[in-house]
Amino acid sequence: MNRIFANTNSTYHSTEVTGLSEGREYKYYIKCIDENDNANTDDLIISFNVEEPEDVTPPVRSNPYPTGDTFAPGTTQTMISIVTNEPASCRYDAEQGEPYNSMGKSFKSDTAKKYHTATVSGLADGQSYDYFVRCKDLDGNVNTGDVMIYFSVGE
Question: How far is the CA of 140 from the CAs of 2, 58, 94, 113, 116, in angstroms?
Answer without folding.
Answer: 46, 8, 23, 15, 17
